[in-house]
């Protein structure tokens, strides 16, 4: 039976094609003992801090030509408490207004179900 455009059945080749296109946008880099799977536009990751909720790295955004901070949350969905903490942190970051932070944006990259928080810094 021929596959119709837009077919999302398990036998459809489109989902795997979409995943291969998506994975072409990402790369994996190890920082310390933590693996980051991030967009290729973010380069030169260097650790700048870590804590109970995750690790923060400095990186360079090759598209905007800005230095950014990327936080990888460790086990954000381990239980309800961790999920609430992650959600609270995301909500609070939207309210950040500081002279050293020109703008910030929250990007949730659920590639391999690992969310990241991206801050664009001056």
From TrEMBL:
A Pfam short name: Pkinase
InterPro entries: Kinase-like_dom_sf (IPR011009), MAPK (IPR050117), Prot_kinase_dom (IPR000719)
Entry keyword Transmembrane helix: no
GO molecular function, one term: ATP binding
Domain Protein kinase: from-to ranges: 42-122
Taxonomy, superkingdom: Eukaryota
Keywords, comma-separated and alphabetical: ATP-binding, Kinase, Nucleotide-binding, Transferase
PANTHER family reported in the protein's UniProt record: MITOGEN-ACTIVATED PROTEIN KINASE (PTHR24055)
Name of the molecule in the record: Stress-activated protein kinase JNK
Organism in which the protein naturally occurs: Nephila pilipes
């Amino acid at each position: 039976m021929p596959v119709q455009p837009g077919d999302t059945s398990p036998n459809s080749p489109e989902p795997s094609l979409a995943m291969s296109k998506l994975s072409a946008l990402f790369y994996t880099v190890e920082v310390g003992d933590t693996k980051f799977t991030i967009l290729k536009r973010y380069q030169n990751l260097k650790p700048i801090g870590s804590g109970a909720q995750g690790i923060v790295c400095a990186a360079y955004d090759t598209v905007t030509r800005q230095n950014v901070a990327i936080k990888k949350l460790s086990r954000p969905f381990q239980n309800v408490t961790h999920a609430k903490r992650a959600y609270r942190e995301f909500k609070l970051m939207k309210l950040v207004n500081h002279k050293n932070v020109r703008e910030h944006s929250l990007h949730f990259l659920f590639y391999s179900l690992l969310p990241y928080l991206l801050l664009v810094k001056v």
